[in-house]
Amino acid sequence: MRGILIAAGGLAAVGLVAGTAWAQPPPPKKAGIEKEGYVWNAQEGEKMEALELKGDSVNGEEAYEVCSACHLPSGAGRPDGTFPQLAGQHSTVLIKQMADIREGLRDNPIMYPFAKTLIDPQELADVSAYIQTLPIPRDNGRGAGTNLEHGKKLYDDNCVECHGDFGEGDAEKFYPVLAGQHYKYMLRQITDIRDGRRRNANPEMVEVVKKYTDEDLDAVVDYMSRLEWPERQTK
């Protein structure tokens, strides 16, 4: 049924799928980074229910169809930064971020109605398992490339320990894959983290980037947008 709706008219059809979710108000905002004692990867809630399940990528492929109008069937997202690349992302990271959006811990009014179409933790695990199997594209959006040496130094000094030499992240620690991610999307997210607008951010990352200037952010994000992780990337 999902496939029929998508084929019938792209974004307009997706709107029909998510219609009931759009009719609902967004969830109450759950306290995040602004709360003293906030634990960004707390072992609780729907996230933990989904993480304890084995995701079925076959079922997940069907569930992903409602996501594909924005993130594309390939999971490549949009180089203009409106929608991130999802392909090859760790299933754990995907589960955490979608659960955070569903629970009101991460503000994303565009994504929320679609995230709500996942009916239970099992479907959340299934779609995340499928997305992880998609190969990371190499033709992602990148910056101007004017200050890459500075960007590499910032990355090596402050980012590589968590996100890895190839931008591969760490599935067990919920550190996302950066390889193949779009420059404009990452720049918006890291700016929001620095400025306190990303409420489900890792406090350790906030401490790192809060001292960065706009020029620093641009340089390190431009460098990150050029990282490649051969294990999950297309040729």
Describe the structure.
The chain contains 13 helices and no strands. The chain is mainly α. The chain has two domains: 2-133, Cytochrome Bc1 Complex, Chain D, domain 2 (Orthogonal Bundle), CATH 1.10.760.10; 148-232, Cytochrome c-like domain (Cytochrome Bc1 Complex, Chain D, domain 2), CATH 1.10.760.10. The chain is globular and about 45 Å long. The model is unreliable at 1-22 (pLDDT under 50).
How far apart the termini lie comes to 33 Å
Overall, the morphology is: globular
Domain count, please report it: 2
Strand content: under 5%
Topology:
Layout: H1 2-7, H2 10-17, H3 19-22, H4 45-51, H5 57-71, H6 91-103, H7 112-115, H8 121-133, H9 148-158, H10 160-163, H11 183-194, H12 203-209, H13 214-224
Helix pairs in contact: 2-5, 4-6, 4-8, 5-8, 6-8, 9-13, 11-13
Salient structural properties:
235 residues; mainly alpha; Cytochrome Bc1 Complex, Chain D, domain 2; 2 domains; 13 helices; globular; disordered N terminus
